[in-house]
Amino acid sequence: MSSTDTIVHILPPLTNQPRETETYKSKNITVNTQEVTDPDSQDNQSVGYDGEVDTLRRLGRFYNWILTFSVVTRYAFYILPVATLLAIPLSIFATIHSDSNIKGIKMMGLFVWLEIVWCSLWIAKLCSKTLPRAFRLCCGVISAGTRKHSLMIKALEVPLSIVFWVIACWASIPVIAAFNPETDVTVLGSNVHWIRSLQKGFLASVPVACVFLVEKVVIEFITVNYHRTQFSARIQESKRRMHLFELLYEASTILFAPYCPKFADDDYIINTSLLSTVGKEIQNVTDLQTGTPIRIFDNLGRLGTGVTSVFGNIVSEVTGTQRVDSKSPHAVVSWALERRPASEALARRVFNSLVAEGNDALYQKDIERVLGPDNHHEAEEIFHALDKDANGDVSLEEVTMMVIELGEGRRAMTKSLHDVDRAIKALDRILMCVVLVGAGLIYGTFFSDNFFKNMSLYTTSLMSFSFAFAGTVQEFTGSCIFLFVKHPYDVGDRVEINNVDLIVEHISLLYTVFRRVDSQRKVQIPNIVNNGNWIENISRSQAMSEHFSLAISAATTFEEIENLTDELKAFVTADGNRRDYKSDLDVEVANVGDMSKLELKINLGYKSNWSNEKLRVARRSKFMCALLATLRKVQINAPGGGDVAIGDASRPAYSVSVSDEEARISRMKYLDEKESHKYVKDKGI
Question: Which has the least CB within 10 A, 107, 198, 209, 672?
């Protein structure tokens, strides 16, 4: 009796809601989605850390307390110091030097306006910060899917603040002359030259700020739309599959405790730490055959993890914050997926702990027995996720392949997100250059009366050099369309371009780096070139098929071809092969050529795509060997084959001599017999 038969209802009923939500940040926008990488890996990003612990003194702790106390104290801490400095000359020019002026304009009005400018900056920032909440409050009544738009508005906080601030500065310029009643200063003009120049500058800054805002809106729209269409579904699927496998691992640890004698070796591999790596190096250096050094360092690593967990729990209790348990199923599975040996050990542990005794495959009833009847739908979903070939059972190879693909998919997705973000940043920098050129044109329009008159001359000079950068502009535009609109591949995908199998290594804005499957050489291809190529994405394809063509003897009968078909179908449906091949194998006579041979075409369907080159080669080689053995078994020969060579002992070669009269009579007899068998007789006979 299996140990799984005695364990029922060991897990609570599941919910379809994800257990945790992580935040993904890209281009100053925060998108709530399921995490793809291990949260513990954030510690690995501390590049260049010198080991010195940074501690805050009393003044630093007081500064942090003010900033984190409330929004009012934080903004007051930002506004009051500079406002106080501006208030000093303001009070001086209001009392002692009240007659000080700049071309008839009192200095007091200027410093009052500077106070307004400084305060309006933070008021504009506060308005842009509260705008997403106001948007959710107003538009959330109409539609519930407004969160992504509010997140975009939140990411545009700085450009919106600049627009609001520039408008406020321009509208408050008449305050400068508020203490000079005889001076005519309005929002649209002034009779004072330097105030009029100041108004032109801020009035020109309004469209410049709007252009800057439009550029950031375009970048944010590309970022949000691209990540939502390309990665949102993949992230959700990856997170769901990982959550389901965490349930299997949790059930496995309940059935068999970690580091139990049965699974001690696998648990040591799954939880391999830096100390165990040191132990392995010691074992290699000392040429020991036992695993004692590795186990010693593994146990030291477990002790350190336990001590860290205890102190972490104490800190979380004191501070009231939550921490990630390093021994939780999520942490263990996430850590194991980062390394192939740990992934294989994790798959072995889960499979061998859940499979019933005496069986070599895992069935849906085994998972339901462990999870309980309340989790029937989750058990069914787990089984279908593991049973990719849909044959009703799951082997150890299928579980191992699923775990390895899950880990490789997470790493490839993370790298693809990183490369796309870098491409978007490059696009942002290029568009910012365009914004700077546009800002120069706008300021030139406002400050120069002859600017438009000279524009024709500037345009003619610029067009004369257009041939120098026309190709660059075309390449940039085509690459943007190829990457952000078409996007035929991601990092880690296997593609076929011009009949060459390639693996995507790195994606940039203007080019893509591939690795050839046959020679492992790196190839860099411009995106504008790939924009006109046929790209077959093998990784995104479902189960694929392959055609085999071979020539056989023209003397082959239809019954022999049927026997070949039956034998090949028996091969692909055998117990050892039904997880690799589909049962719908077809054999057809494609052509008879010059009637000296028959051309057969065999259509073989696989139960997966060809993204895994090692697996594809193994399956194809196995079928080719079986095809050759089957052809010999049913005695189907090559064209002109099927008999021994002339000169063999069983087919000797000899010659006889006949007279000319006998040769003429035999020839005429052959021609008469040939004419008698014709469907249409010759008219001359």
Answer: 672
